[in-house]
Amino acid sequence: MTDAEALLATWEQKFRPHPDGADLPAHHNHCLGCGPDNPHGHRLQARRHGDSVVASHSFDGRHVGAPGIVHGGAVATVIDDLYGFLLYLVGTPAVTRRLTVDYLAPVLIGTTYRLEGSVTSREGRKLFVAASLTASDGRSVATSTAVFVTVGVDHFGRCGAPSVDD
Ligand SMILES: CCCCCCCCCC(=O)SCCNC(=O)CCNC(=O)[C@H](O)C(C)(C)COP(=O)(O)OP(=O)(O)OC[C@H]1O[C@@H](n2cnc3c(N)ncnc32)[C@H](O)[C@@H]1OP(=O)(O)O
Q: Boundaries of each Thioesterase domain copy (predicted)?
């Protein structure tokens, strides 16, 4: 079995029903957003919360932009990856076609934030999703919307195999 085939086999297992409250599996071990074995990654851990996905997350010094402030691209990465967990609930692979982020307040290094994402509507292959990043005092520091387009798992096989072990 090639690396790509092995990866796709694990993904098919991940698109099964996950009970409410369940921790959701990483997309793969080296995923920039959630892979536990990516030394540059965010290691995002998300769980199902009803029809949404939620995560508690803090950024570290690898993700700094302006001093003390998380780089906007790092925030976008984590939000994009959060949406990737929603796909488990939807039950189909999809990829980001459009991603918008409104940066409402600085996101601080070493501060824990709550992320929540959900599907707002579905139209054919298009999944319209939305997410927020909230500080512990309830302030919304970033909001996002995105359009994902559903694809078959063959989409990823066509793109070549990353070097992965799950
Ligand atoms: C599954 C495991 C999760 C993996 C980890 C998740 C991590 C986070 C997610 C990612 O990082 S994904 C990686 C980044 N994204 C990509 O690499 C996607 C690159 N783009 C593509 O491969 C193709 O553009 C794509 C497969 C998304 C679509 O190409 P297609 O030729 O299959 O479809 P098409 O371009 O016709 O668009 C499909 C539909 O979307 C609509 N559309 C396109 N752009 C849109 C837009 N900006 N807003 C609204 N709708 C849009 C388009 O009109 C059309 O609507 P209809 O089906 O109703 O005709």
A: 68-141
